[in-house]
Design brief:
By secondary structure, the chain is of the alpha+beta class. It is 54% helix and 14% strand. The chain is globular. It binds flavin-adenine dinucleotide.
């Protein structure tokens, strides 16, 4: 690179810093993620429905080889040692390039966070490097047939037995349940404990006797990930499989959600961004009706304008929540993560719906769909449901504001 190139690169990085606050190093990482996802993801999923359901193992191996699975995992556990902000930038690029692959790959990082955040040293040393290398899948099993949004207590029991636990119960909707090497299970360890105070999170290796897994069948979107029912029948685990403290499962989960919900917000933003870019291209440069590009018609221009503003707001929400988390802003983390998750997923769903409308009949079709916008719409909906539905995000935010009324300004920021 000659001196002029270097100067131009520095000026571009400085302009980007002024616009987004991203440092040159963060911009480099973002560019690397964009180049990899932009060149490798498109074309993997074809109109053949089987390709949408098949996890691209070779591509995931290359993704892991590049270090993308563990961007925000500490170096001693095989990661790159960056923060949540850097990982969010990568998730945005992954989901922008392809919603299904982006969501599927980023979920590996999201699910592994519970060990990275609350696991003890042996657990982290055993599992995190394997996940970073793409050699095993993690899973988290909270949801039960009778306990979805309700995390006050669980029907799954973990009874103390000598120096360990015996676990019995049924979990549903476990992502990567069919492939997972271990499950982080929320189980009642004190059946008489008060709400939220009587359950623990416990790691159960898949090969323990008494663990059985069954797929839950087809679903609307993110078809590349399995969703499973996991049954624990008299499963014995040693006491050192406890993740976090006994009967303090809710604290482990709250720390986990404060991070994972920002990643879900980043997923939503990435899916919307990819749809918007394709719709803008189509409306301004490709599709004419009665002699004019369709973007020149007011309703289309308005849909584009709404979508641009929505995406700009999503960027602000994700960057703020991620920065706050990385800075260790404890009091706001839960609130900002819930706000980012709720608003980004709601806005993303509306943006992708507008984009589908801009593609007209072609947007509705599976075959010949110029931007896979039909698949993006099916995929993005999950961001309003998992890691707590958006109605639950409302409850969390209201409860926070009751205790900290002066934080109301955070909503309007
Ligand atoms: C594809 C997919 C992947 C998933 N992955 C995982 C996973 O890996 N691990 C895991 O443990 N779970 C997972 N889930 C489960 C997911 O987190 C739950 O589906 C979600 O939390 C909602 O629980 P529920 O389905 O039981 O709905 P319910 O809790 O029964 O809610 C039904 C409706 O009632 C509303 N509602 C419920 N309670 C309240 C309330 N108090 N106030 C206002 N409204 C309320 C909800 O917002 C929703 O609209 C996954 C789900 C899906 C679909």
């Amino acid at each position: 690179m000659d001196a002029l190139d270097r100067l131009l690169t520095q000026r571009r990085a400085a302009r980007e810093y002024a616009r987004t606050g991203l440092t040159p190093e963060q911009q480099d990482l973002q560019r690397a993620a964009r180049e990899f996802a932009g060149s490798e993801f498109p074309g993997i999923i074809t109109p053949d429905p089987a390709t949408e359901k098949t996890f691209p193992a070779d591509l995931f191996a290359a993704y892991a080889e590049l270090g993308m699975t563990a961007v925000d995992v500490a170096e001693e556990y095989g990661g790159a040692g960056y923060g949540l902000l850097e990982k969010a930038l990568c998730i945005i690029e992954d989901c922008r390039a392809d919603s299904t692959i982006g969501l599927a790959f980023s979920l590996v990082s999201i699910i592994s966070d519970v060990l990275a955040i609350a696991g003890h040293e042996d657990q982290k040393r055993r599992w995190l490097p394997l996940i970073a290398q793409g050699r095993c899948f993690p899973a988290i099993s909270l949801t039960e047939p009778d306990h979805g949004s309700d995390l006050t207590r669980f029907n799954t029991r973990a009874e103390t037995d000598g120096d360990g636990f015996v676990i019995d119960g049924v979990k549903v909707f476990t992502t990567y349940g069919l492939e997972a090497a271990y499950f982080i299970v929320a189980a009642q360890t004190d059946p008489d404990g008060p709400d939220y105070q009587g359950f623990s999170t416990i790691l159960v290796e898949r090969d323990r006797p008494g663990v059985s897994v069954a797929g839950l069948g087809d679903k609307l979107g993110i078809k590349m990930t399995s969703s499973a029912e996991v049954v624990f029948c008299g499963v014995r685990v040693p006491r050192q499989n406890l993740v976090g403290e006994l009967n303090r499962g809710i604290e482990t989960l709250n720390r986990f959600f404060a991070k994972s919900r920002v990643k879900i917000a980043a997923q939503a933003l990435g899916v919307a961004l990819g749809a918007l870019e394709a719709a803008e291209r189509y409306a301004t440069r490709e599709r004419r009706q009665t002699g004019r590009f369709i973007a020149q018609y007011r309703p289309v221009a308005e849909m584009l304008q709404f979508s641009r503003q929505a995406v700009a707001r999503m960027w602000k929400l994700v960057l703020r929540a991620a920065r706050n988390y990385d800075a260790g802003g404890p009091f706001e983390s839960t609130f900002l993560a819930a706000l980012a998750k709720r608003d980004c997923s709601n806005l993303a769903e509306r943006v992708v719906r507008h984009c589908l409308q801009i593609f007209g009949g072609y947007g509705y079709m599976r075959e010949g769909n110029p931007a896979d916008v039909e698949r993006r719409l099916r995929d993005v909906i999950i961001t309003t449901i998992y890691e707590g539905t958006n109605q639950i995000m409302d409850l969390i935010m209201r409860s926070h504001l009751r205790q900290h009324p002066h934080d109301r300004h955070l909503i309007y920021w």
